[in-house]
Specification:
By secondary structure, this protein is α+β, with helices and mostly antiparallel strands. It has 7 helices and 17 strands. The strands form 2 sheets. Strands 8, 9, 10, 11, 12, 13, 14, 15 and 16 form a 9-stranded mixed sheet that branches. α2 packs across α3. The protein binds pyridoxal-5'-phosphate. The site of pyridoxal-5'-phosphate has 15 residues, from α5 and β14. Pyridoxal-5'-phosphate (PLP) binds next to α5 and β14.
């Protein structure tokens, strides 16, 4: 990780090295926090934050889902994000807000612990090496939607993603793929999953997956480009036989999938995937005015 100068910590900037918490911080023990991952792109008009409002709305939703009374509004968090990019003089970066229960009492229920918020930013390149991914179905299934709050981005449940990623990487693959409790495809440890057949793009329906902000942006984009998009259960057999598969996510952007275990896709980087990926990259670089409301310019 490339360190930057300052981290926003409960409303004020502190030097990177001083952004510390006590070892008895509640969230460190019980995974009771909420977070976001946001990309900031270099454009001709300076840095632009992708889907800032949607990310902060999800952060507020996730935080409230574990009972936090946030000391900042969504709008204040959006302003803090802009200020964090600005103060660190970053042209492009990854932005990481985190809300957590801090140091106070230490028992499972977090009463007596303060709600704290941080925001950090640092330079970040392509994830998954920017190439077509070779993925593998892992043995840890995606957590059951009723185990926590399925559509919230909470820190604790990420141990499920962490195990999936570790298993796939440990076996030499670029990324893992998790099934849901019914045996259908859920998602990657940090990515939503899509298949393509002809001009139809299909993606697992909401329920057992994180409702990705890139996923919903790509669904809108694909429909605008004339593709039919379905949100429905997707099986592994269908994915093996599909024309193309791809991942979406803040980190992965639109990443083609070359193979799933020993099953090679018909083409490792498909035509439709390439089309959607190229149009997506134009949008995030501020080159398609039709989607300008997806970007917040740092100025
Ligand atoms: C489990 C999981 N699924 C999907 C995604 C993609 O979501 P988004 O496009 O909002 O980054 C992420 C990344 O945040 C994730 O961690």
């Amino acid at each position: 990780m490339k360190i930057t100068e300052k981290i926003w910590f409960n409303g004020a900037f502190v030097p990177w090295a001083d952004a510390k918490v006590h070892v008895l911080t509640h969230t460190l023990h019980y995974g009771s926090g909420a977070f976001e991952g946001i990309r900031v792109y270099k454009t001709d008009k300076g840095p632009a934050i992708f889907q800032l409002e949607k990310h902060m709305a999800r952060l507020v939703y996730s935080s409230e889902s574990v009972g936090m009374k946030l000391p900042f509004t969504k709008e204040e968090l959006m302003r803090a994000a802009i200020a964090t990019v600005k103060i660190n003089r970053l042209e492009s970066c990854y932005l990481r807000p985190l809300t957590f229960y801090g140091y106070g009492e230490l028992r499972v229920s977090p009463e007596g612990c303060p709600v704290e918020v941080i925001m950090a930013a640092w330079p970040w390149g392509a994830y998954l090496a920017g190439e077509a991914a070779r993925i593998s179905v892992v043995k840890t299934i995606r957590i059951h939607p009723q185990t926590t709050v399925a559509d919230a981005k909470l820190t604790g449940p990420y141990v499920n993603s962490m195990l999936a990623a570790r298993e796939a990487l440990g076996r030499g693959f670029t990324e893992g793929l998790q099934l849901d409790y019914e045996g259908n495809i859920a998602e990657g440890p940090g990515e939503n999953f899509f298949i393509v057949n002809g001009a139809t793009v299909s993606t697992p329906k909401l329920g057992s997956i994180l409702p990705g902000i890139t996923r919903s942006s790509v669904i809108t984009l694909a429909r605008d480009l004339g593709y039919t998009v379905e949100e429905r259960p997707v099986t592994l057999k269908e994915a093996w036989a599909a024309d193309e598969c791809f991942f979406t996510g803040t980190a992965a952007e639109v990443t083609p999938i070359a193979s799933i275990d020993e099953h090679k896709m018909k083409s490792p980087v498909g035509k439709v995937t390439t089309h959607i990926r190229e149009e997506f990259l134009k949008i995030v670089q501020g080159k398609n005015p039709k989607y300008k409301e997806w970007l917040t310019f740092v100025g």
